[in-house]
Amino acid sequence: MKFLIVIFLIFFSLSKNMAQVDPQIEKIKSIIIEVKNLYAPDKRTALFDVQLEKIGKKFYIKGETNLKEAKDYLIQKLDGEGLIYEDSVEVLPSTLLGDKIYGIINLSVANLRSNPENAAELSTQALLGTPIKVIKKGKGGFYLVQTPDKYISWLDDDGFQIMNESTWTDWKKSEKIIYTKEFGWAYESPDNNSQHISDLVVGNLLKLLNEESEFYKVEFPDGRIAFVSKSESEKFIDWYNRLNPDGESILKTAFKFMGVPYLWGGTSSKGMDCSGFTKTVYFLNGIVLQRDASQQVNTGKLVEAIDSWESFQPGDLLFFGTKAEGNKKERITHVAIYIGDGDFIHAAGRVRVNSFNKSKTYYSEDRKKSFIRAKRILNSIGQNGIEQILDNQFYK
Length: 396
Description:
It is a single chain. This protein is α+β, with helices and mostly antiparallel strands. It folds into 4 domains: 22-90, Histidine-containing Protein, Chain: A; 97-166, SH3 type barrels (Roll); 174-242, SH3 type barrels; 247-391, endopeptidase fold (from Nostoc punctiforme). It has 9 helices and 27 strands. It has helices at residues 2-19, 23-39, 68-80, 165-173, 236-242, 247-254, 274-283, 293-296, 365-370; strands at residues 48-55, 58-65, 86-91, 102-105, 109-113, 122-127, 131-137, 142-146, 152-156, 160-163, 176-179, 183-187, 196-201, 205-212, 215-219, 225-229, 233-235, 267-268, 271-272, 287-288, 301-303, 317-322, 331-340, 343-348, 350-355, 371-376, 387-388. Strands 21-26-22-23-24-25 form a 6-stranded antiparallel β-sheet. It has a 5-stranded antiparallel β-sheet with strand order 9-8-7-4-10. A 5-stranded antiparallel β-sheet has the order 16-15-14-11-17. A hairpin with a 2-residue loop joins strand 14 (205-212) and strand 15 (215-219).
C-alpha cells in the first residue's frame, strides 16, 4: 500500500510540473522556430543554430548564424513581445578569423565534409580556382566554408588558400585559364615531360601569368607556378563569352563523362554523384546550379508529362524518388539529363544511359516507376537559384 502511495505522489508531482509550462519559454522557442523556418529552412545552405537556456530566473539566447538579417529579425520579434533575455547569438563569420574570411580552392578537387574530420561523410567537392567564403575555424585544421552554390560544409586547410577580401577580389579579377580536358597535369616547365606540379580536371581555374610557346604559365592560389598545355585549356573569358548553352551543348558535355564512376558527394571527372553530375555538366556550360537533386528540383520551369516523354527536350532535368502519399512527404533522391526518345543520361553506378522506352535494351523499369517530374533549366537562367557563372556573387 505504501509503495502505491509513493508511486502516486511521484506521478502527481511530475504531472503538476509538466502542467506548469513557462509561457515565456514556449513563446521564445516558438519565435526561434519561426525565424529558422523563414530564413534558414535548408541547413545545407544557411546556418541558424540558436537555443534558449534558462539559468535561475534569467533567459539566455545562445548560438550562431551566418545570416545577420535572421538575427536582426529574431531580436525584433523578441523585443516586440516584450520578452526579457540576454543575447549571446554570434553572427558569423567568426571574429577569430580576423579579415581572413575568404578563400580559393587550391587542389584539382577538394573534398568538403559533413563534420570537421577526415573520416566524416563527403558532402560535396569544389574544383581548383573556386571562390569560397570562410565561416569559422573548427578542430584539426578544418574550416566551415560556403561554396558558390551556397552549400555549407567542412574543408581542411590543405584544400584552399585562405585570404582577406582584397586578395580574394584580386584573384577573381585576374585573367585566368580554364582547363578543358577531362584529366591532365600542370607541369614545372613548358614541357610535358617535366615534373608534375598538380593534377588537373575539367573546370579547374588558374591565374594566367603569360604564354610560353604552346603553354600557359599559370599561378595557383597558394603561389605555386606551373605550365599548362594550351591544347588542353583556354583563356577563361574567351571560353565564357563563346558559350551559348542549349540542349545539344549540354548533352555534348554530359557524354564526356560516360563511364565515370559514381561517388557520393563527387562533382568532378574523378567521380560524381547524380546531382554532382548535372551540376558539373551545367557549370561547364557557364551555369551554376544548386548542389543536390532535392534542391535542383525546386528550380527551373515545370515540364508537363501526362502520359509520356514527348514534351521533354534535350537538356531537361528529370527527377526521381517517392511521391507524396498520406502524411508521407515527397522525396527526391535522383536526377538525370534527358537526351531524347525516352533516353536519359545519369550517374548511377557510373555515368550511363537508361531509357523510359521499353523498346530499348537499356530500358529501366525502376526509373520509370520512380519518375516524379521534369524541369527545364535553360529558359530559367537568372531565376530560382540558376545563375550564369559571372552573375554569381562569389565570382563577381
